[in-house]
Amino acid sequence: MEHYWCLRWLLQEGITETPATVVREQLVRFDRLPLVVRLADLPALAPDTPVRVAIGRIDLFSATLESRYAGPAA
Questions:
Q1: Is the CB of residue 21 less than 8 Å from the CB of residue 50?
Q2: pTM for this predicted structure
Q3: What SS3 state is found at 33?
């Protein structure tokens, strides 16, 4: 349920890019939300590395979102 409301908030606020922190391998945790996503295009980075995540299509019905690596945190 929390996952759904995080996606709903992203839509409501019109968020297209957000800061995140690498958890391990292809997993990142959003900095402003309790949300962890897998980024297939994430380069090999050490855990706790700050990155930017681009938010794509969000589907509330299936509670999914398309996201990709947008570069290192500024």
A1: yes
A2: 0.87
A3: coil
